[in-house]
Amino acid sequence: AQSVSQHNHHVILSEAASLELGCNYSYGGTVNLFWYVQYPGQHLQLLLKYFSGDPLVKGIKGFEAEFIKSKFSFNLRKPSVQWSDTAEYFCAVNLIKAAGNKLTFGGGTRVLVKP
Amino acid sequence: DTGVSQNPRHKITKRGQNVTFRCDPISEHNRLYWYRQTLGQGPEFLTYFQNEAQLEKSRLLSDRFSAERPKGSFSTLEIQRTEQGDSAMYLCASSLDLQTGELFFGEGSRLTVL
To answer: Which residues of chain A have pLDDT under 70?
Structure first.
């Protein structure tokens, strides 16, 4: 079955530390890849997306992600986190040939940044 | 605010009662999606519409669940004879009909079944 795995359920780090969140997917076809963020009490918002081209994509708020096709991975990174990055982060995938742009989400990683 | 709007934001009901949630998508978006999110999990796909046509339903959507989008604008999700296992956040999202279209999510409707 198609699935998206996020390796860490919880991450705790201090301000200015670097962040990397892992995401692997198990689709056989060509995919679009997304990272969404959910700040406390807010709706899911898009951080960044990969459709084609340069596998290193930059998103909002200093986040970036690298698509490694051979590893079926799309890891999210930020060199120096801030307290305001405390949130839950979701990796999501859709199959390009599938109808409807339906997204399949990973289980999420809850990130707590200590001031 | 021109984002995706959902209401009610919170609903507490007793087991066996029916509940209905409404979603108003971004106005020019012709695709509308329903997802369910339980604590500690990522959103799980339930169903989606292209205009007024319901094109796909997940196996998660039991016979007690029904969704409509009568005029291709707002949508409703009804749960009949609610069970405690239905307690979750119900998320609505909308998108343009593009291969690369991102989904825009509402704030969700939280259901608690007592």
So the answer is: 1, 96-100
Position A100 scores a pLDDT of: 67
Cα Rg for chain A, rounded, in angstroms? 14
Section B87-110 average pLDDT:
89
Residue numbers of A between 16 and 55 with CB closer than 8 Å to B? 32, 34, 36, 42-46, 49, 51
How are beta strands B88-95 and B31-37 bridged, if at all?
Answer: antiparallel
- Lookup result for tokens 């999420």: A108
B24's tokens? 């108003």
Six-digit token pair at B100?
């690369």
Task: Give residue A82's pLDDT.
Answer: 96
Buried residues in A11-37 as b, exposed as e (16+ CB within 10 A): beeeeeeebebebbbebeeebbbbbbb
Nearest to A103 among B4, B41, B103 (CB): B103
